[in-house]
């Protein structure tokens, strides 16, 4: 059952979730998962997830587990579903992004993104948000297919699209 009014405690949780997303490592991880990592196959996905030597392995785990934790809070009534859906899109984006290979991922990891999926099934506001985001994800995926890919491979690492090293720090702005 969906609640209509959020409480001040709900707002505090939403603000804390936002604050956690701004931590430097989490920002790098989110930038990579959202913007760079577009696996076309289950094998490409597990080439990162199953490879502890891959720099992006902890990033993928960190981002997906973060959004699953947040979705679990909604499912267990710790935060208003409506407020959460109004304030967050990224978990839905990630679910939509992996949707073409989700069944294959779940053959090996049955619980992968299951809390976010359950939230979409349980709350109409989440389903509506997910549907709109899924359309944008598909447009973005199509645009990526139409562009030539820039691929980087480091010695002794498998070549996986989107696993190029991200800069550790933002470039400094010219002070002139």
Topology:
Elements (H helix, E strand, L loop, with lengths): L7 H14 L2 H13 L5 H8 L7 H19 L5 H7 L2 H9 L3 H7 L5 H9 L1 H23 L30
Helix pairs in contact: 2-4, 4-8, 6-9, 8-9
Write a brief structural summary.
By secondary structure, this protein is an all-alpha fold.
Summarize this structure as a short list of keywords or feature phrases:
176 residues, mainly alpha, disordered C terminus
Report the uncertain regions: 152-176
Q: Which class best fits the helix and strand makeup?
A: mainly alpha
Average pLDDT, rounded to a whole number, is 87
Tell me roughly what share of residues is in helical segments: 55-70%
Beta strands, count: 0
What fraction of residues sit in β-strands? under 5%
Output the radius of gyration. Answer: 17 Å
Shape: globular
Write the element-wise H/E pattern from the N-terminal end onward. HHHHHHHHH
Q: Which oligomeric form is depicted?
A: single chain
How many structural domains are formed by the residues? 1
Number of helices: 9
Instruction: Please describe the biggest sheet, giving its number of strands, its sense, and whether it closes into a barrel.
Output: none
CA-CA gap between termini = 57 Å
């Amino acid at each position: 059952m969906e609640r209509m009014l959020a409480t001040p405690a709900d707002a505090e949780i939403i603000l804390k979730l936002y604050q956690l997303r701004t931590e430097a490592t989490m920002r790098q991880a989110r930038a990579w998962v959202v913007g760079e990592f577009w696996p076309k196959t289950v094998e490409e996905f597990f080439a990162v997830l199953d490879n502890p030597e891959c720099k992006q392995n902890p990033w993928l785990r960190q981002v997906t587990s973060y959004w699953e934790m947040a979705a679990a809070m909604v499912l267990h009534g710790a935060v208003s579903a409506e407020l959460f859906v109004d304030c967050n899109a990224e978990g839905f984006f990630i679910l939509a992004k992996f949707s073409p290979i989700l069944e294959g991922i779940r053959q090996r990891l049955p619980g992968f993104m299951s809390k976010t999926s359950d939230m979409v099934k349980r709350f109409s506001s989440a389903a509506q948000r997910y549907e709109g985001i899924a359309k944008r994800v598909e447009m973005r995926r199509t645009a990526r297919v139409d562009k030539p890919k820039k691929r980087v491979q480091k010695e002794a690492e498998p070549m996986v699209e989107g696993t190029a090293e991200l800069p550790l720090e933002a470039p400094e702005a010219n002070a002139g």
